[in-house]
Amino acid sequence: MSADPIPSLPRGTRLHHDSVRGAMVLLAPEKALILDEIGAAILSAVDGSARLSTIVARLAARYDAPLAEVAGDCAEFLRGLAADRVIDLHD
Amino acid sequence: MTSPPIALLAELTHRCPLACPYCSNPLDLLAREAELDTETWARVFREAAAMGVLQLHLSGGEPASRRDLEALVTSAREAGLYVNLITSGIGLTPARLQALADAGLDHVQLSLQGITAEKADRIGGYAGGFARKMTIAAEVTKIGLPLTVNAVMHRHNIDDLEATIAFAANLGARRIEVACVQFYGWALPNRAALLPSRDQVIAAKRIVDAARPAYAHRMAIDFVPPDYYADFPKACMGGWGSTGLNIAPDGKVLPCHAAATIPGLTFDSVQDRPLAEIWQHGTAFTAYRGHGWMQDPCKSCARREIDHGGCRCQAMALAADPRAADPVCRHSPARAMVDRIIAAEATAPAPAFTYRRLAPQA
Ligand code: SF4
Ligand code: SF4
């Protein structure tokens, strides 16, 4: 798999604002992941066309955080979801 | 305040063309006349979403036996729920599936009784079912809906596990749920016909462990091991009345699908009381919520935060006491009985199935 894949949310995976819990939730088959601020920011940046490196750069700028740290967090989070077939990663 | 539930399992109907001997429906099946109408379900979905439910599982019986399934999916999506259809595929057609997808269906969970027509139709008790299911499976992936294959495993098909996993992947499933039969509903009287042997279970665990990395990025594999062979019970429903609820075809609200087997519980109906109030204050929910009901060994056990004492319905079924530790637990005085059941049933010749029927045999 590419080191810099394009993440996307496949049909059946979607972000939902949960007004009862006051949080963003990732809804997918057999899963409802209540997201923290970082998870929500990463997934909100997934638009099906931006590469991982672009998403990382955007988030690092927005949160004024070290690029390497953001890159590590993003890759781990998204690759975990992809291994579990919740999101897709394209070359 | 009890935190809100995540998931609602709506048993839209008990009607089903199949007759699986492990069906989780109660032995007393409800007839069509008892079922909630379209409008009532739509109101229940709105109430569920407003109280914090995120995922709706449309189940049965066979939910496609309801002619208003498309309308129910529409109202559930309008309410803001994630909509999962749990189906045998029978009663669906390509056109109907497309209509459900257009109505906003999010995900299809298709049951698989076996991987050959001969075996699947014998287990499901419905000739021709396998072929129709295959048509629907192909249609689900063609439309682009995510597919989960739900393979219920027992002594007659667990030896086919490796081939079953490959079969599901070839159908284009994104996940497979390998669920060993749990002994509730119709499975309990069929236990001797279904209980796998210890050797079968050990082999199945090895197969799952090897398949997970082999199918990574292609198909996720969930595995529900048979609790009779476990040392400690499963955390049933994530704890009684804590994460999910079930609604029966007639509107009765249950903490789990087997809860009606516990004597003395009374179940409120969505026809009489708001769902949020039933969840918070209904006596069937408060009865075993938290740990206050516990007696020893659970009461003083360090694992109680993990498994919440296991399953109340299994404690009732095997130890005749819903407050007992789940009898599969190594600390339970009733564990010896589970071992006796395994010794007596798991390797003896399998008796014939008692198929699930709307008018159960006496
Ligand atoms: S388990 Fe079998 S009989 Fe029961 S509802 Fe599902 S398909 Fe029908
Ligand atoms: S004694 Fe009760 S709480 Fe402890 S492990 Fe057994 S079932 Fe769970």
* SSE pattern of chain B, N- to C-terminal: EHEHEHEHHEHEHHEEEHHHHH
* Greatest interface by residues involved: A-B, 20 and 27 residues
Structural class of chain A: alpha+beta
User: Helix segment count of chain B?
Assistant: 13
Q: Summarize the helix and strand pattern of chain A as letters.
A: EEEEHHHE
Stretches of chain B where pLDDT is under 50 for at least 5 consecutive residues are: none
Overall body shape of chain B: globular
The strand order across the widest sheet of chain A is 2-3-4
Annotation field: number of helices of chain A? 3
Helix content of chain B: 25-40%
The CATH superfamily label of chain A reads Coenzyme PQQ synthesis protein D (PqqD)
Write a short abstract of this structure:
Chain A is an alpha+beta fold.
Notes on the protein architecture:
The complex is a heterodimer of chains A (91) and B (362). With 91 residues, chain A is α+β, with helices and mostly antiparallel strands. Helices cover 42% and strands 23% of the residues of chain A. Chain A has a single domain (6-84), classed as Coenzyme PQQ synthesis protein D (PqqD) (Arc Repressor Mutant, subunit A, Orthogonal Bundle). Chain A contains three helices and five strands, in the order ββββαααβ. The mean pLDDT of chain A is 94. Chain B has 362 residues and is α/β, with parallel strands linked by helices. In chain B, 34% of the residues lie in helices and 13% in strands. Chain B is built from 13 helices and nine strands. In chain B, strands 7-6-5-4-3-2-1-8-9 form a nine-stranded mixed sheet. Chain B is globular and about 55 Å long. The mean pLDDT of chain B is 94. Residues 232-233, 297-298, 301, 303-304, 307, 309-310, 325-326, 329, 331 of chain B line the site of one iron/sulfur cluster. One iron/sulfur cluster binds at residues 16, 18-20, 23, 25, 60-62, 88, 111, 356 of chain B.
